[in-house]
């Protein structure tokens, strides 16, 4: 009787040890699947709204022939998505803050996560232009 109880007890321990190894593997697989899903979801968010993940900075000056020269930098704050052909809106304002004109410029560069690219453009801005504001409108997904 003692042998059968001991044998049964040993069998239970062996089966439970095998079962816990399967659970560990399953838990690791679930964690990897969860990570992959999170990564995919993040990529989808970054691709859907690139204007939320690209920052533009710049300044303007006037050259000798009266053009407004705008120099800027676009920087990707994305963690997964790669962008290309970034659309930047330029708004020209007067000294009093009145909007004089709006233009669109496309920066034909590829931006990987965390990278920056410089651009330069020239405009014959409207008379009375005092400042230029820059804003990212969108970008294309470079992975397609």
Comma- or semicolon-separated keywords:
single chain; 144 residues; alpha+beta; 3-stranded antiparallel β-sheet; 1 helix; 33% helix; rod-shaped
Task: Tell me about this structure.
The chain is an alpha+beta fold and 144 residues long. It has one helix and six strands. Strands 1-2-5 form a three-stranded antiparallel β-sheet, with no helix packed on it. The chain has a three-stranded antiparallel β-sheet with strand order 4-3-6, with no helix packed on it. Strand 1 and strand 2 (68-76) form a beta hairpin. The protein is rod-shaped and about 100 Å long. The model has no long low-confidence stretch (mean pLDDT 83).
The major beta sheet can be summarized as: 3 strands, antiparallel
Structural class: alpha+beta
Order of helices and strands: HEEEEEE
- Give the count of helical stretches: 1
Number of strands: 6
Measure the end-to-end span.
Answer: 70 Å
What does the overall shape look like? rod-shaped
* Overall pLDDT score: 83
Short description:
With 144 residues, the protein is of the alpha+beta class. Helices cover 33% and strands 42% of the residues. The chain is built from one helix and six strands.
Topology of this structure?
Layout: H1 2-48, E1 54-62, E2 68-76, E3 83-93, E4 99-111, E5 116-123, E6 131-141
Antiparallel strand pairs: 1-2, 2-5, 3-4, 3-6
């Amino acid at each position: 009787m003692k042998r059968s109880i001991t044998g049964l007890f040993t069998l239970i321990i062996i089966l439970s040890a095998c079962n816990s190894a399967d659970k560990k593997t399953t838990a690791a697989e679930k964690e990897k699947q969860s990570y992959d899903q999170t990564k995919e979801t993040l990529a989808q968010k970054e691709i859907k709204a690139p204007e939320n993940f690209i920052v533009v900075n710049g300044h303007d000056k006037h050259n000798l022939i009266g053009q407004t020269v705008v120099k800027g930098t676009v920087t990707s704050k994305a963690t997964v998505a790669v962008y290309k052909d970034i659309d930047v809106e330029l708004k020209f304002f007067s000294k009093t803050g009145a909007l004089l004109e709006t233009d669109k410029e496309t920066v034909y560069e590829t931006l990987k996560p965390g990278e920056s690219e410089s651009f330069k453009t020239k405009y014959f801005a409207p008379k009375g232009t005092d400042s230029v504001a820059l804003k990212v409108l969108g970008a294309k997904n470079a992975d397609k």
